[in-house]
Fold this protein.
Amino acid sequence: AQRVTQPEKLLSVFKGAPVELKCNYSYSGSPELFWYVQYSRQRLQLLLRHISRESIKGFTADLNKGETSFHLKKPFAQEEDSAMYYCALRALGGAQKLVFGQGTRLTINP
Amino acid sequence: DTGVSQDPRHKITKRGQNVTFRCDPISEHNRLYWYRQTLGQGPEFLTYFQNEAQLEKSRLLSDRFSAERPKGSFSTLEIQRTEQGDSAMYLCASSPKTSRSSYNEQFFGPGTRLTVL
């Protein structure tokens, strides 16, 4: 079975401080991991995926297979980063469905 | 093309009634997905189409739920004999044509919020 756990429902940091949103997964095969973001009154959108190894809006995430984690990090938080963040997993090899975590609401305080 | 659209955006119904939602994917996206999101949870996969073929169905999709994509374009999700537990946001997503095992980004619609009284 595939499972994604985001242990923090709420996370609040000050502007300019580092941010880390935690994501742990459970899957016996090879996973593909994603971070999706939903800004206020906007639709869910892809932020980044581990295969791309990109930095998007200053965010990075590294897949750690040993710890089965895919934490999202940003060195200096900005107010516009306030949003709902979802970690998601897809099983490599054909399955198309995404398995999402419960989400973390990130609030950046001025 | 402004992205995935869903209609209606909100639906309030009484328990026992049938409801139908529509999703229009981005043009030429051959994959279409339905998810359900309840309060405080992430989206949960319901079903997935490639063109008009329904290729995956979640165990969440009980006999009261049916989804169609008759011409490989728009899709409908029908819930029969609604229950209060069906109250949720129903999300549709689409992704472009690609090889079977590779992945392309899923683009989400705004969702249909269902309230069952």
Q: What stands out?
A: The mean pLDDT of chain A is 93. The interface with chain B takes residues 4, 6, 9, 32, 43-46, 49, 86, 88, 90, 93-103 of chain A (CB under 8 Å). Chain A has no helices and eleven strands. The two ends of chain A are 41 Å apart (CA to CA).
